[in-house]
Amino acid sequence: MNRYTLTRHLWRSSGLVVLWAGMLVLSLLVTGIVSLFKDITISGWSAWVYISPWYMLGMGIYVTAVHLPMYIEHGVTRRRCMPQALLFGLLLVTVGAALITLGFGIERALYAVVDWPQTLGESDDGLFTAADQYGRIFLGFWLGFAIFLAVGAAIGAAFYRKAWGGLGGVLVIVLGLGLISPAGLAGAASFPTSRVVEAVAGQPSIALVVVSCVVAAVAATGLTWGLVRDLPIRSSGN
């Protein structure tokens, strides 16, 4: 296997750019249709982007429950698989956050043509509070995507290996509900547990949000590694 073959294969299978383009076109189309009946006062893209973290969760599951076992079964060592899978994850998260940010920029340019305000609604939660805070938008979604991808990878690995008597996947899902809470605080997701934290402690500082996101992503990644480092290969009959 050539160097980075697995990374390239995973990237091609992700379909990220095509999905982003489809979501952006659909967002603009729906906004245009709505404008025929009422004034546009908020960013349509800001509502659509909250689908994207769940895509990252699904990709994480897909990598550890489908791709890694397939590669290991065909003789690729875990030592070779994991660095390439990690590189793919970093690439997916970075490009994904960049595309979300680009979507806000494209929408802003189009809104300017028709003189529509591009606001984020009444919420001022998260690392960004305006649709043109591109650096903060990128950071917020990068952190959120990293958490969702890592949690998805842990869930996929736990279900695949039937960890802890088959209850591992369920237990990891429960744990994942807590781990993804910081993604909501970063503004990259709309999630109930994040609102619970805000209700109890208020909106935390930017530094605390960043640190909590990093800790959550590292914890989920560590859990994933613990589950895949000796990942068993099941035959199709099992």
How many helices? The count is 10
Q: Provide the low-confidence segments as ranges.
A: none
- Which shape, going by the Cα principal axes? elongated
The total beta strand count reads 0
Proportion of residues in extended strands: under 5%
The value of Rg in angstroms is 19 Å
Mean pLDDT: 84
The total tally of domains equals 1
Distance between the termini: 28 Å
Main beta-sheet strand count, sense and barrel state: none
**Helix percent band:** over 70%
Based on secondary structure, the structural category is: mainly alpha
Secondary-structure element string? HHHHHHHHHH
Structure in words:
This protein has one domain. Helix content is 71%, strand content 0%. Helix 4 (52-73) crosses helix 6 (134-160) and helix 5 runs antiparallel to helix 6 (134-160). The longest helix has 37 residues, at 78-114. With 238 residues, it is mainly α. The chain has helices spanning 5-14, 16-35, 45-48, 52-73, 78-114, 134-160, 168-179, 181-185, 192-201, 206-228. The chain has ten helices and no strands.
In short:
This protein is mainly α and 238 residues long. The chain has one domain (5-228).
Task: Please name the defining characteristics of this protein.
238 residues; mainly alpha
